[in-house]
C-alpha cells in the first residue's frame, strides 16, 4: 500500500483521508497549520453593500457560527446581498446556514471568481470580504482595480502547528526511510510550515509532491520544490484521484 502524508489540520483532514482511502492509499496525518478564531470583529450594517465574498470554508464557519448564536436573522440579511463563494465546498458550507450563492467559478480560485464578475457590477459599489490572516488579498485588489470599495473582516487566524518533538522525529524518519510516497499540500501555509517544522530544504527523490492548486504550487516553486501532482479541480476527491493515478 502506498502512503500519503496529509498536512491539513486534524479536524479538516477527514474528507481528504476518506477520499484517499477509496483508492487504497494509506495516510499519515501531520498537521502543519492550526486554525483559530480571531476575537473582536463585528459585522457592519449590510444595507450599504452590494455583495460579500467568501473564499474558504473557514471564512464561512468563523463568521456564521457566532452570528447564528447572537444574531439569528443574519442569514436573511446576508441573502439580501450578492453572495460570492470561491468553490463548491465554500458554497456548501454557506448552504448549511441557509445562505445562497451566485454562480460558482469553474475552478476554485479567487482569480477565476473575479473574472466572472463584470467590471460595471463592481464600479462605485461596496463589498465585504471575509478573510483569514494569511489572505493573499486578490479579491480586494480586483475590486479596487475596477473602481469599487472593499471592507475586510478577519475572522480566523492561520498559525504554524506545534507538534511534539517526538512527532517531528517520527515524520522525518519516515521520509528518510522512504516510507512516504507522496506529501499533499492544500495551501501555501501547509507547505511553508512543513519545511520550517522539519528544518529541511528538500525531499527524498522518490517522494512525490501533490498540490491542491496553482497558488500552493507557486509557494512550493518559491522554495525550489517541484509539484508532481495537481488535480483538474481543487477538491478532496479530485486531489485523491490525481494522487492515485500518479502512484499506481
UniProtKB/TrEMBL annotation:
Its EC number is 4.2.1.75. It catalyses: hydroxymethylbilane = uroporphyrinogen III + H2O. One of its GO terms (molecular function) is uroporphyrinogen-III synthase activity. GO terms for biological process: protoporphyrinogen IX biosynthetic process; uroporphyrinogen III biosynthetic process. The keyword Lyase applies. It is an enzyme of class 4 (lyase). The keyword Lyase applies. Belongs to the uroporphyrinogen-III synthase family. Catalyzes cyclization of the linear tetrapyrrole, hydroxymethylbilane, to the macrocyclic uroporphyrinogen III. This is Uroporphyrinogen-III synthase. It comes from Chloroherpeton thalassium (strain ATCC 35110 / GB-78).
